[in-house]
User: Which sequence fits this backbone?
């Protein structure tokens, strides 16, 4: 038997009450999304995948490696004012993409769409560079939407619970769990 990895244990500070989406189900859905995206973009030249830090880093890594089309990776970072259980809706750009995305095919890759404010802001911002923009999110809390944003690719609709894992955190913890779980955060 393998000895417990103290680094892994240290990462789990909130108790996961329930596994919402298993590792196997995530991997199967990511493979399906990759097949669909590869098909949709097969005659479009190079796809620029823009991961939204930090939460999208694992989803982007898995998704991008399963595509069968030419692709490059960019990252963007934003911060939301008043983020606690809900964001206030005011989004600020913290880090822009490095490459020139003018006239390119861009896919924004998000881990989660909650109120929708972040993605709404990003679509508007990236659109101003003039590329063809589509959106992809692993999970969406449909009950929490405050603004409507078009999602071209979606992994799962989920209930309004605190979720962690596969990139999602609570107070920076639990991002590296291989599954998505529900927690009750301590206040
Ligand atoms: C999360 C997530 C999205 C955003 C969605 O980011 O990665 O970017 O919230 O929320 P919204 O739909 O209500 O705007 P978060 O601010 O938690 O930062 P992180 O990705 O660095 O954890």
Assistant:
């Amino acid at each position: 038997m393998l000895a417990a990895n103290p680094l892994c244990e240290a990462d789990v500070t909130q108790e996961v009450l329930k596994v919402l989406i298993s590792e196997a189900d995530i991997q199967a859905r990511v493979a399906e999304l990759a097949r669909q995206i590869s098909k949709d973009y097969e005659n479009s030249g190079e796809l620029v995948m823009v991961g939204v830090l930090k939460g999208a880093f694992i989803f982007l890594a898995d998704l991008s490696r399963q595509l069968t089309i030419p692709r490059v990776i960019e990252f963007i970072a934003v911060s939301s004012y008043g983020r606690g259980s809900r964001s206030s809706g005011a989004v600020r750009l913290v880090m822009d993409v490095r490459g020139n995305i003018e006239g390119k095919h861009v896919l924004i890759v998000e881990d989660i769409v909650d109120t929708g404010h972040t993605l709404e802001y990003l679509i508007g911002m990236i659109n101003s560079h003039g590329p063809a923009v589509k959106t992809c999110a692993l999970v969406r809390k449909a009950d929490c939407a405050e603004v409507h944003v078009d999602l071209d690719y979606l992994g799962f609709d989920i209930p309004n619970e605190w979720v962690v894992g596969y990139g999602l955190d609570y107070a920076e913890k639990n991002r590296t769990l291989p599954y998505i779980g529900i927690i009750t955060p301590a206040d």
Notes: The mean pLDDT is 89. The helical segments are 6-11, 23-40, 57-66, 117-127. The domain at 22-160 is CATH 3.40.50.2020 (Rossmann fold).
